[in-house]
Amino acid sequence: MSLMAEKGYEAITVQEIIDRADVGRATFYAHFADKRTLLASRLEDLRESLLQRQRETLGRGGRSALPLSFSRALLDHAADGLPLWKAIAGAESGAFVLRRLHEMVADLVRMDLIAMGMTRPSAHRELVTQHVTGAFMAVLTWWLDTGAKQSAADVDEVVRRLVMEGLARTAQ
Predict the structure, then answer these.
(1) Residue 138's closest CA among 169, 112, 162?
(2) What is the number of other CB atoms lying within 10 angstroms of the CB of residue 3?
(3) Is 162 helix (H, G, I), strand (E, B) or coil?
(4) What band does 90 get if pLDDT is binned at 50, 70 and 90?
(5) CA angle 153, 157, 159 (to 5 degrees)
(6) Distance of CA 55 to CAs 45, 59, 61, 136, Å?
(7) Sign for the pseudo-dihedral over CA of 73, 74, 76, 80
(8) What share of the chain is helix, strand, coil (3-state, %, to 5)?
(9) Spatial distance between the Cα atoms of 69 and 53, rounded to a whole number of angstroms
(10) What do you get for the CA distance between the two ends of the chain, in Å?
(11) What residues have CB less than 8 Å from 82, skipping those under 6 apart?
(12) Tens of pLDDT, residues 59-86
C-alpha cells in the first residue's frame, strides 16, 4: 500500500513489492498470481473487517443498527488512506478498486436491509440496495476527492440520516 501511495499502482512492479515486503519471489507467487490479485486480496481483507464490524453492530442493536452500520468504519479507513486514494483515483487501478468497493458496499447494504426486516420482493430490495450503495459511493468519492475535510463522524451521521428518511418514505 505504501508503494501505491508513493508511485501509483500502475508504476509498481512485482519485484518492488517483493523487495518492500522482504519476501522471496516464490513466496509471493505461492499466494498471489500477480499484483492485481494482491490488491484484490487487500480489498477482501477490508471487506471481512467491515463484515465483522457490521455483525457486531447489528448484534448490539440500538441506533448503531441503522442502515449502513459499516459506514463509519469504512469512512475512517478511507480517511486513513487518503494519500493512497489520491494515488489511485483516476488511474486504471482506481476503476478496479471502485468497482470492488461498490460490490462490497452493496453486499453490506443488502445485509443491513435484510437485518432491518425489509420484506419487499427481492427485486425491490435490490433496487433499494443499488440506490443506497450509489449514494454512499458518490459521497465517499466526493469526500475523499475534496480531502476528507469533514469528519468521518459528521459524514456518517448525515448519510445515515438521509438513508433512514428515504427508507421510511419507501416503506409507506
Answers:
(1) 162
(2) 19
(3) helix
(4) low
(5) 115
(6) 15, 6, 10, 19
(7) positive
(8) 80, 0, 20
(9) 8
(10) 45
(11) 144, 147, 148
(12) 776 545 567 888 888 899 889 888 888 7
